Amino acid sequence: MLLSILLAAILPSAPDTLQAVTVVADRGMVVSRTDTVLVDSFTDVSSALMTVPGLYVGDYGGNSALKSVSLRGLGSAHTAIYLDGVRVGNLQSGQADLGFLDPDNISSVVVDYAQNSLSFNTSRPVFDDDRDVAGKVRMSGGSFGTWRPHARLDFELSDDIALSTSFAAEGYKGNFPLVDGTLRDNNDLRRFRGGVDLFVPGLHVKAYANGSKRGTPGSLSYPSTDRQDDVNGFVQASWVNAFTPRYELRVSAKGSYDKLYYHSQWGDSDYRQTEIQLNTAQRYAINSWLSASFAADLQWDGLSGNVYQESRLGTVAVAALAAATSRIKADISVEYDGAFEKGGKSWNCISPSADIRFSLLEGLDVTAFARRAYRTPTFNELYYPGYGNKDLKPEDALLTDLGIDYHRSFGSWTLKARADGFFNSLRDKIISAPSADDPMVWLPYNVGKVVAWGADLLAGAYYAEGDWKACATVRYGFQKALDKTPDSYTFDQQIPYVARHTVTADASLGWKGWSLQAVFNLRSGRVDAGGDMPSWNTLDLSAGKEFTFGNGLSVAAKVIARNLTGTRYEIIRDYPMPGRSLLGGLEFRF
Fold it and tell me: Quick one: 550 exposed, middle or buried, by C-beta within 10 A (0-12, 13-18, 19+)?
């Protein structure tokens, strides 16, 4: 679905917002269940997302590894990724690698449980009254041969128009030691990123490029010398205009090109994917409390390479009604999804949804949503030689959530507490199994069913007065994501890698330019095809100091200790994560 999150409330400078956030999507719906995480406190995007219990971050170990994300047991291909309101797509594998994002340019990410999506937002420029140029230069490095230069320049072209340019690079030798004293090799990375953003009232134009060369070391059981080169580039624009007090139009467009070259001892693969998007949304206020909206999106994807060639046209149309009074905000919608490929293959689906937020008392809300989610098979699942199955049906899911949300401010304090229960049901799950003709050959089939249910709990406090700022948040997530596939050898067992128990805790303290932060993560109750997996926990600490000089110049120094306890753990079996590491850096702002 090509719906985007375009507006969020201003957030405090803390690891996690503790204020009520209203998010408005393209079709005008009021999203009742979101989490907003600030990224600037973390060294990478995946570390920030690890603080959200309902989120599974897949990591194959080390900076060079693929990093994917999925929500509440549904799989990464079900989770939509947006950058500044426009969707990031990959129809080859269905997984968007979070490594292509530049964390130094991302201000926050909104996790939307109702839309099953993550929306990343670029930091907007801020200028002093007497300056029309601002910028920052950062250099950081540390363990395992890591180095990360980053530079950004912002230009105030007029009172309403700003231009931002950025460049970043990353190097990583990846030779971290394993438990037996050997080194994890062929895990190196070289990456370069660059972007330009034009901010005009109602208009945001973005151009971005990312390229990397990396090793893919394989698992400890089957190490490899394979290599991967990838290039990504896109240009996108988002425009919104309120023509009258009642009528608003939003339009976004995107063109992108992705190239992936995989060099393997079993043969080389070369993929080139082109994508074109056009997304529109109209909203009309019928009266002071009721509005109607309609969204229509088109997306064309073409994939060519030495393995296979395919193309697909995707369409989305959504009609919605949204009501808002002093105590209740509600949305109902009907969505059409269609996908059409050359040769006549097509998929179609009608998906209803409902979303509500009801205010019981001041600062105490009840939230609920229900939605059908639909995922067409990826190109690899359908057409990869020797693996693809052209007869696959789309995965079909029902998402539901019921929660209570408390948020109040008392002078210098803001308190927040939340409890959410959820139930997701997924049928026609695409799984791999031995084929009937040859048990040694595994193919994808629509024989899977998954039922996921659980609860997310949160408690937090934020304090700000004078030179002091402090924030503390504790989250607990319980999730049972069970395989309900008939005759499956894992019937009624937990889905691989989904943690039954998740605990995250973060705390930060700031005073006169000094900052201190601690982040604790725990995962337990995980399994995979090999059986139970060990529980693990990590502790990260960071400390910094910002020195402010005249004429808007400041210098900040920061030190980050990752996995301070030296825990040896694996998110994916036989793909070890690095042990204890230390990063340090200097940032100059002007």
Answer: exposed
Q: Which residues, in sequence order, are bridge partners of residue 75?
A: none
Burial environment of residue 375 by CB neighbours within 10 A (0 to 12, 13 to 18, 19 or more): buried
- Report the candidate in 555, 543, 559, 556 with the shortest Cα–Cα distance to residue 507: 543
Q: What is the pLDDT of residue 434?
A: 62
Cα separation values, 42 from 103, 142, 566, Å = 8, 15, 19
Q: Report the 10 Å Cβ neighbour count for 239.
A: 14
How far apart CA 484 and CA 451 sit, in angstroms, is 7
Among the listed residues 128, 166, 156, the one whose alpha carbon sits nearest the alpha carbon of residue 548: 128
Of residues 501, 551, 540, 547, the one with CA closest to residue 518:
540
Residue type for 481, please? A
Distance of CA 13 to the CA centre of its chain: 20
- Check if the beta carbon of residue 405 is closer than 8 Å to that of residue 422: no
DSSP letter assigned to residue 392: P
In three-state secondary structure terms, 48 is helix
Nearest to 192, CA basis, from 165, 164, 167, 227: 167
- How far apart, in Å, are the Cα atoms of 449 and each of 47, 370, 468, 491, 544? 30, 19, 51, 10, 48
Q: What is the pLDDT of residues 59-96, one digit of tens each?
A: 777 777 778 888 887 777 788 889 998 998 787 877 77
Q: Decide if 101 contacts 120 (C-beta within 8 A).
A: yes
Question: Which pTM value belongs to this model?
Answer: 0.87
Q: What is the DSSP letter of 221?
A: S
Sequence-distant (≥ 6) Cβ neighbours of residue 85 within 8 angstroms? 4, 5, 6, 26, 119, 204, 238, 252
pLDDT digits (tens, 9 = 90+) for 559-583: 999 999 999 998 888 888 888 999 9
Which letter does DSSP use for residue 44 in this model? S
Q: Residue 3: what pLDDT?
A: 34
Encoded tokens for 379: 């190109």
Nearest to 124 by CA among 193, 192, 13, 200: 200
Between the CA of residue 138 and those of 44, 163, 164, 590, what are the distances in Å? 14, 19, 16, 12
Residues of the chain with pLDDT under 70: 1-32, 433-442
Whether residue 451 contacts residue 429, with contact meaning beta carbons closer than 8 Å, is answered with no
| pLDDT recorded at residue 1 | 36
In the chain, the amino acid numbered 119 is: S
Domains of the chain: residue spans and CATH: 5-589 (2.40.170.20)
Give the tokens for residue 424: 């997701």
Contact 432, 447 (CB under 8 A): no
Give the number of C-alpha atoms closer than 13 A to the C-alpha of residue 532, restricted to the C-beta side.
Answer: 6
Q: How far apart are CA 119 and CA 292, in angstroms?
A: 24
Question: If you search the block for the tokens 């330019």, which residue do you land on?
Answer: 513
Cβ–Cβ < 8 Å for 18, 12: yes
Q: What is the pLDDT of residue 134?
A: 93
